[in-house]
Every structure is written in C-alpha cells, then in structure tokens.
Amino acid sequence: MGKREEFELIVKEEMRRVFNLAYRLCGNHADAGDITQETFLRAYQSFDRFEGRSKVSTYLYRITCNVWKNKTRKRRIQNFTSYTFKLNKYEMEIPVFDDCNVEDNIKREERNKIVQDCINALAPADRVIIILRDMEGRSYEEIASILKCRTGTVKSRLARARQKLSEKILPLQEVLR
Amino acid sequence: MRIHKNIEILSLYIDGRLKKDIKDIVDVHIKECSECREILLRFQETRKLLSGAEIINPPEYLEKEILQNLPSTRSFTRCVTVPVLGTLTMVILGFLVIQKNIHRDDVHLVYQSPPEMLSNDVVKQKGESAGKEEVSNITEEMVKPAPVIEEKPVLARSQMDKENSIEETGGINGDTVKEIETEDKNSAYEGKKVRVLSSVVTQATKEKKMEEATPSKKGDIMPTFMVIRDRNEWQNIWEMQNRAQNLSTPVPDVDFDTKMVVVLPSRIEDRAYKVVNTVEEKDKVIIQYKEVPLKESPQEPYNLKVVNQSNIIEIQNIEETSK
After folding, report:
1. Between chains, do A12 and B63 touch, taking CB under 8 Å as contact?
2. How far apart are CA A33 and CA A71, in angstroms?
3. pLDDT of B240-297, one tens digit each?
4. Among B50, B61, B67, which would you mutate to test the A interface (most chain A Cβ atoms within 10 Å of its Cβ)?
5. DSSP string covering A113-140
C-alpha cells in the first residue's frame, strides 16, 4: 500500500475525531473544518517522519492542538477586536435531527450549546486539557504526549480546569436537565 | 498530605488515579467532610455533562476536500526529481557544447585565416568582354604583411557548420575535391555547388590536417576561400578591408547578377598567399595562387577576385600544380 492510500484510510477513520476535537476547541463549524483540513495536510506532509511509537490518533491530536493554538494566536494578534462572524458553508448548515421529536432535539441542541459556551469561556490551556480528558477520554499519559508536557502538569491543570468549569456550568444545571 | 479541599487529589480520585492507600484515606475523609463531598459531586457532574456531549458530525464534503487538497505523490516526486534531472541535463549539454567548441576552435586556428584587416586596393574590372572577365588583383600593391588574424570569417564558419553535408567527389593534383551543398539562405553559397581543393576539413581528417599545419612540417595548406554573391556581404568585407588600413575608399560596384567575388585569405598563421591568376571556363572558375614569403605577403587580409557567376570554383596552388 502506498503512502497516499495508507493516509486516505487514516483520514476516513480519524476525521470524525479530529473534527470533534477541533470543534470543541474552537467552538464553531467553520474553524473546525479549517483546522481539520490543515491538520491532515500537515500530517500528510510529515507522515514519513511518523515512526508509529504513539497511536495515530495521538499524533493527529497533537497536530490539531498545534494548529488550533496557531490559529488562536494569529486571530488574537490580527483582529481580536474586529472579529466578524464568518458566514460560510459551515454556518449555513441546518442541523439534521435523528428523530421526529422536535422538542427533545431543540433541548439537546440547547444543552450542547451551553456546554460549549462554558468550555469556550475557559482559558485555552484549561480548555484543551478538559476536552481531551473528559470529552475525548484520553489518559493522562496520552494528554501529556499530545501537549508535550509532564503528567504532573496534566494532573494539576486538569483539576484547575474542572474547578473552573464546574463553577460555570453548575449554575446552569437546571437548564441542562 | 493535605486532603481537605485538595482539588488535585479529588480530581485524581474521580479518575481512579490514586494509589490504594491514599484512596482509602480520601474515602474516609469524604464521608466525614461535606465540603469535599460537594466538590467531588460537582466534578462528577461536570464530567458527566461533558462526556455525554453529542458527537458532532463533520460535513460530508469535508473528507472529499481533505483528500483533494492532499498534495499528490507524483507532484511531490516531480518537485524533487525534475530540478535534479534538469540540472544534470544542462550540465551534460553544457559539457558537450564546450567540448564541441574546443574541437572547432582547434581546426579554425589551423585552417581559417579570417580577415579582419583589409587593403585599400580597388577592384578593377578589365575587359568586360562577353562571358569572360578579368579583374585585377588587389594584391599587386601589397606592402606590409597583414596583422595576425583572430576573427573567423563568417562564411568559413558557415562552411564548417555544413561539413556534414560534404561529399567527397574526386581529386585534382592530389588534393581532395569536395562538393558543398548548403541550405543556408544567407550564405554566399546559397544552395550552389562549389568545388574546393582541400579547403574543407572533415572530422576524419582533422588530426592529419593539424599536423600538416604545424609550421615545422612542410606541406601545402589550402586556404579557405569565400564567395560573395550579394552586395551586403561585399560591402561588409570591403569595409573590413578599409578599416584594417584606416581607409575609407568607396565600395567598388559589382554586378552581382552576373558576377561574384572570390575571397582568399592573404595569410594563414605564418603562411602568406597571393592569387596570381584566374581562369574562367564555361561553367567553372579556377583561382590560382601561390605561397609567398611572409615579407611579401599582401597588406590586406584578403585577395579579392571578381569573376563571372559560376557554380564550380576551384582553387589551385600553382606551385603544386607545376611540380
């Protein structure tokens, strides 16, 4: 199997996870799409250097986090104050509901939005760590590998992030139920 | 270790990352401490909310876009191989061209005595009687030897370039006779056949000729001649002739409808040549020359002869012929 064929399989298998992580990190479909694309492009360019010592998903998550960090940094520098809402094909998507219970679907959408808003309110360093642990279910060691930091750092940061998030999210618990 | 309100311990507790002995202590503390129990409950609730968050489906076209945007392996290979191969090709071609030029220059040094300096002699036409024409040679008033010639004559170069089209046809007085066919429209030959006595060098005879050209060895080197069939070339060569001698004599009028000018170098390296006679036959012109001492060599770099238009021109060394 050639490099490209092998990578195409990886795209098919991992794209959903990468997109989800990107979406949780940036909070909107447009940026999540961009980040996902750039992640796979970078991964492909450096795929020859991937030695397989970590899982492919860990490798992709690490790139996703770096792409997101760069994007956030650029945006903060360029147009933090004059950010205009991007209306493109991603935003124009109409959510498709799985069943016909419209009321339940709306509630679910609302709950998702509230959770995401609370995550977005966290500092980037806290945000990424809580997403990786509590949403993606990654182990401490994997998170340390993705973020290139020590496991001890992951532990302390995660506790701090949980503390902050719980302070934001719990007052809204009634709405979420 | 402090357990009370230690969020890191509590965070690790809900993840099951505590060692058994510490976990036992925390278990006991939680039962007793409502504040820590509260924190623990908040953490668990939060985690539950997050882990229960819906998975977001990426847009369907995203996968297609990603795959389309991946750089193709072929173009990546091309990026690397094409410049490398291109450079190699250029180097090889450059090497071959240099090699070819070196060979050419060697031959030219021996056989071409390109004219750069010319005389102020005037071509005179004598007796324009029907079909036969005699023209005085400019070389009669030669005083000083021509300076060393460095530039190659255009026509001679053209002749050399066409060496592959040369066919050996026979010989006169031991010299090789060649017929030249050229497709060069700008050339004086203009597709006409010209007979040359040993004046054209083929690749096969280069080494032999180079030996002959060595001054220490005796032997006849036939000078390369040129034929001028149009006024522009005639004007050019005349201007060169003038320039060589700091003169500005007007270009003699030659009717190129019926005439042509045969140009023979006056000097080739350390040898000097002088045209002594011109024989014009029905469809052939014979230019007879002899080798003269350098001191007697014509001042101008060319012997110029205006003759009737002819497709066959022979150059004879009169001394060789008489032997």
Report:
1. yes
2. 13
3. 888 877 788 888 888 888 888 888 888 877 788 888 888 888 778 888 888 888 777 7
4. B50
5. HHHHHHHHTS-HHHHHHHIIIIIS---H
3-state secondary structure of B308: strand
Residue pLDDT, tens place only, B117-140: 333 333 333 333 333 333 334 443
- Are A16 and B47 a contacting pair at CB < 8 A? no
The torsion of the CA quartet B140, B142, B148, B151, rounded to 10 degrees, works out to -50
* Cβ under 8 Å to B: A residues 5-24: 7-8, 11-12, 15-16, 19-20, 23
The 3-class secondary structure across B190-220, one letter per residue, is: CCCCEEEECCCCCHHHHHHHHHHHCCCCCCC
Residues constituting chain B: 323
Q: What is the pLDDT of residues A84-142, one digit of tens each?
A: 334 344 444 445 555 557 777 777 778 788 888 899 899 999 999 999 999 989 999 99
Indicate the residue type of B93.
Answer: L
Cβ-defined contact of A4 to B66 (cutoff 8 Å): no
Chain A contact probe: residue of B3, B5, B8 with most A CBs at under 10 A: B8
Between chains, do A134 and B59 touch, taking CB under 8 Å as contact?
A: no
How many angstroms separate the CA atoms of B41 and B39, rounded? Answer: 5
- Looking at residue B212, its pLDDT comes to 40
Res B28: pLDDT:
93
Does residue A107 belong to the interface with chain B, where contact is any CB pair within 8 Å? Answer: no
For the cut 90, the answer to whether the pLDDT of residue B48 exceeds it is: no
8 Å CB contact between A11 and B63: yes
What separation, in Å, do the N-terminal and C-terminal C-alpha atoms of chain B show? 126
CA distance A147 to A134: 15
Does residue B249 or residue A76 have the better pLDDT? B249
Taking the Cβ of residue A45 and every Cβ of chain B, the question of whether any pair is shorter than 8 Å is answered with yes
Tell me the pTM.
Answer: 0.48
Which residues from B are below 8 Å from A19, CB to CB?
56, 58, 62
